[in-house]
Amino acid sequence: MGSVVSSFGNLCGKEKKQEEERHLRANDRPFNLSYLYANNAIKTSKYNVFTFLPLNLFEQFTRLANAYFLFLLLLQLIPQVSSLSWFTTAVPLILVLSMTAVKDASDDINRHRCDRQVNNRQVNVLTDGELKKEKWMNVQVGDIVKLESNHFVTADLLLLSSSEPLNLVYVETAELDGETNLKVKQALTVTGEMGDNIEALSTFRGEVRCEPPNNRLDKFKGNLTVNGQTYGLDNDKILLRGCTLRNTEWCFGLVIFGGPDTKLMQNSGKTTFKRTSIDHLMNVLVLCIFGFLGTMCFVLAIGNAIWEVKEGSVFTAFLPREAGVNAALSSFLSFWSYVIVLNTVVPISLYVSVEIIRLGNSFYIDWDRKMYYPKNDTPAQARTTTLNEELGQIKYIFSDKTGTLTQNIMTFNKCSINGKNYGELFDFSGQRVEVTEKTQRVDFSWNQLADPNFIFHDYSLLETVKEGNPEARAFFRLLALCHTVMPEEKKEGELNYQAQSPDEGALVTAARNFGFVFRSRTPETITIMEMGRKVTCELLAVLDFNNVRKRMSVIVRSPEGKMTLYCKGADTIIYERLHPSCKKLMDVTTGHLNEYAGDGLRTLVLAYKDLEESYMDGWRQRHHEASTAMEGQEEMLNELYEEIEKDMTLLGATAVEDKLQDGVPQTIEQLAKADIKIWVLTGDKQETAENIGYSCNMLREEMKDVFIVAANTAEGVKEELQNARRKMCPEAAEEPSVIKARAGLFWLQKTETVRDEKVDGDYGLIINGHSLAFALEKDLELELLRTACMCQTVICCRVTPLQKAQVVQLVKKYKQAVTLAIGDGANDVSMIKAAHIGVGISGQEGMQAVLSSDFSFAQFRYLQRLLLVHGRWSYLRMCKFLRYFFYKNFTFTFVHFWYAFFCGFSAQTVYDEWFITLYNLMYTALPILSLCLFDQDVNDRWSFQYPQLYSPGQLNMYFSKKAFVRCMMHSCYSSLILFFIPWAAMHDTVRDDGRDIADYQSFALLAQTCLLVVVSAQLCLDTHYWTTVNQLFVWGSLATYFAVTFTMYSNGMFLIFTSVFPFIGTARNSLNQPNVWLTIFLISLLCILPVVALRFVLLQIRPTINDKVRHMVGKEVLPSPAPRRPPARRISTRQSGYAFSHSQGYGNLVTSQGFLLKRPLKGRSILFTQTDSALAENKPQQYRTITEEVEESQSSHSW
Fold this sequence. Notes:
By secondary structure, the chain is an alpha+beta fold. Pfam families: Cation_ATPase (PF13246), PhoLip_ATPase_C (PF16212), PhoLip_ATPase_N (PF16209).
C-alpha cells in the first residue's frame, strides 16, 4: 500500500522534501503513510524490462569511443563520402554493444534475484490485534513485528520487549561490522512491561520522534512519548537491519526505518562506476587522437583541393566530375572520406580486446588455488572485471583491524607470577623453542571442568599450581573472581561463558583450566571450584572498568570471613597504587611485561589487598551515601575508589594474544618493501589499535618516534601535528606546496597535488577519532596529510565509517595516487566505495563489505598475491597491449597517409578492402591477446622475492603520454619504411618473364604482407614468456593470412563474386618472385634492427628493476624458502603493552537481581561482546554495592 501511495505521489509530480525529522505512531498505518515513508522493500537493480534497452544504450553511447563509431557508421552510409563498406564498422560496433549489454543484463538479473530473495522473506507482523505472516517488502514504518531466535532483523527497529530478563536481547552484528561476537541491546522498562501480551502491544500508541535516515551505525537520537511521558532513545535500544537475533526466544520491535532508509542500506550507498587511471588516460589519448586524425584529414583535404585545381582537369576526360562538384566540394567530401579511411587510429577492436584481456585476468584471480581458503571453502573472487591493471599501481592501502588483520579471538599466552615467567619453552641448552602446532600441549584431562579448546604448552605452570604455590593460586583465584563474566551450564560440567569482552573470556577460561573454575554467580555471591573444592565467596562490591580508571576491582569475603580486594588493570595505573614493599618484584615483572609487549601481547597487571572489617563497614556506608548523592556523585565515588585501591600487593601479569590472521606481519612487510603505505582505520580504542600495530610489525621498536595525536581542540590538534612534522623534517616549509594542474577529458578537471617530503628514518602516527574530526576540517586537512604521509605507518582509532571514507578521499584528492581499501563489515563499505579498489574479506558471516567490493578473498595474507602477482602482471600486460596496439594501428594508418600523396588525395585505400576488415579482427587479434593473457616478466616466486618489482606501476612507467608519443614516433618510422621501400622496389619492376608487375594490386599486396610480418616480429620481441598458445597464434595468424589471401585472390572466388574479390591472380603473380621476398626481408630488418639496438643500449646504460631481476633469473636458481627459526626476542621499550577491550557498565548488570531471575537457560554461544563504541565510553561512572536496592539500580542505570 505504501509503495502504491508513494508511486502515485511521484506520478502526480509531488516531490518528496528532504526529511528533517522522523515522526511515527505505533499501530497507525494511515498516520504513517501520510508522511510517504519508504516501505521495507529494497532495490539494488538498475534496470527493468522496459528501461533496459534505452538506458543501457544511453550509458554505452556516453563513452566517447562508442559515440565516435556510431558517427562513423552514419558517414559510411553516405555514398559520396564512403570509400569503405558500412559493415566494416557496423559489425564490430554491434558486437561490442551486444557483449556489453549481455554482461550488464546478467549482472542486473543477479541483483533482481537477490532483491526478490530478501524482499520475500517472512516475518510476523501485528495486524488487527493478531500476528500474521507478512513478506518483508510489505512491512511499513510504525508496524510492530515479532522476531525469533536466529532470525534476521527485518528493518531498523525500536526494541519494545523481549523474552530475556531486564528486556535484554543478544544480537550478532557480523553483517554490519564483521564481528561475530554478540552485542547486548535493552528495551525501555515502560515498553518491556508489555512482554508478549498481544492485546497490550496491539493497543500501544507510542509516538517516536527521531533523526532522519542516515548512515551512522553507532549513533541514534530520538525520543518516545507514551501516555504523555517522554523517554530518551539511543543506539542501545535500536536493532539494526542486518543483525541476527541470538539466544533470545522472541522479541517485539517497532519499525523506525524501512528498506532504503535503514542504516545498512544507507551505508551501501550508490554504487559508483570505477574507472582505472589507464581508462582515464585512454580517454585523453583518444581525444588527442581525434584531434590528430582531424589534422591529418584537414591536411589531405587541402592537398585534394590543390591537386584538383592543378592536376584534376587532366583526368576529367576519363574521370568526369559529377554535376555541381567543384574543387572546394571535392575537398570537403575528401575530408570525410579520409575520416573513414584513417579511422583505424582508434579501432573499435581496441575496446573489445581490452575487455577480453581484463576478463581473462579476472579469471586467473578466480582460479588461483593459492588464494583459495579450504577451511571455509572460499575462493578469491574478482567481482568486477574492469579494474585489474589498477591492482598493479596501488600506493596506499587503508585497512580495517577487527576481522581483517585479526581474528577477534583472544588466547591466554603467557603470564608472570611472583617474578617467574611462564609460557615459554626452552631446550636442554637453554635456547628458546618456538611453539608450533606440533608442540606437546599441557594435559588438562585431570580437570573434569576444563575447556577442551584451551591450549597451553608450559607444564611448569600447572606443576606450580598443583604444588600449592600460594602466589600462583592467588593469581588464578583473582582471575576466577575479578570479572563480569556470566556462566551457563547446559549439562553437568559443560560450561559456557558469556564475556563482555574477549579478553575477559580468555582470562577466566585460563583460570578454569588451571583448576580455578568460575561456576556460577548470584547478585551477592560468586561460586568457584578451587582444585576440585567448591568455594562460595560473598561479593561485596564491583568497582567497574572504564577508560579513565583503566582497571577493575571486586571486593569479596571468603568462607573463612577474610575480605580481599582483587584488582586487574594497566601496569602504569596499578604500579602507582602498589605498596612500597613490592618494588623489587615490580622491577622483575616490568622486565617480563616489556618482553610480552615486544611480542605484541596485550598485558594486564594483577594485584590484591586484604581489608579490615572495621574499615570496610565505614567505606560501604560512605559508598552508599556517594551513590545516592544528587550532586557530585561521580567525583565522590572516584575519591572512594582511589582511597581503597592503594597499597596493594603485586601478584603478577597476564599476556593475552589478540590472534592475527595467518601471515599478516609477513604480508605487511612485503607490501612495505613494494613501497606501499598501509593505514589502519579502526573503531577500536587507542591501546588496542597500538598493540595490533606492534603485533603486525607496522609499528616497530626501532622507529625513531611514534607520534600520538589525541588533543580535544582544533588548536591542540594543529599544534601536535605541526610538532610531529617539524621533528620529522625540520627544514620543511611551514606552508604546504600545492601544485595545481588540469587533467581529465577536455582538461576540465582541476587537480591539486601535495608532493611527498623526504624524511630521514621511520616514524609512526596514531590519531584518535575526536582529534581526526578536527584534523579533517578544511583548514587542517593539509597539515594532517603532510604529517601522515611523512610517516611509514598511520593508525586512526575510534573512527566512524564516515571518517574512514573522508581519510580515503583526502589522500585521493591531494596525492593523485591509487588507493585500496580492505574491510569485512558494513562499517567499511563507505571506505571500500571511496577507494579506487575495494577489497572485501569473505568467509565470515558478515558479507556486506564483500557485496560492495571489487575483489574478495578470505584472508588478509592473499592481498600480497593479489597485488604483487596478479596486479603487477595485469598492469604489465595492459601496458604492453596498449603500446603494441597503438603501434600496429598507427603504422597501418600512416601508410595510408603517405599513399595519399601518390593517389591524388582521392581517399583510395592502399590495402585490399578485405585486409582492412580482417587486420584487427583476425590477423593481429589473437597473437596480442595471447601475449596479454600469458606473458610474465618473471614468475610469481620471483615476484615475491623482489617486491620492488611493483614500484614501476606506482610511477606509471610503462604507459603514459610520453610512452604514447614514443609509440607514434616508432609507428611513423616503420610506416615510412613500409611505404617507400615497397614503392621503390615495385617501381618499374618486371617479372622474371619480362612482364610488368608494377600495378596497384601487387603494390597493395606487398605493402600489407610487409606490414603483417613486421608487426608480428615486433610482437615476438615484446614477448617474454613463450607458451604453446603464443607460438600457435603467431604462426597460425601468418599462415591464416596467406591462406585467406591465396583463396580470395583465386580465379574461383573472382568468378563467383566478381565485384567483391577483384584482386584475381595477384598473390600467385607477386609472391613467386624472389625480389618480392627479398623486399619483405629487407623491410623487416630495417624495422626491427633499430628497436633491438635501442633496447640493447638502454639495457646497458639505464636498466630497469625488471631488467635487473630478469638478468638474475637467467643466472640464479630461485632460493628455496628459508627454514623457520624462532623469531628473535624483541624487548619493548614503550611505556606499556596494556590493551583491554572491556567497556563500562557491565558490572551493574551482572549484580542486578533481575538479571538472574529467569527460566532454565537454553544453549547459547559464548558472548564475546566487544563494544568499542564511543557511546560506551560516555556513560556516567556509577558503581554500587550489592546491598543497594535493585529498583534503585534499575532506575539509575540503563544498559
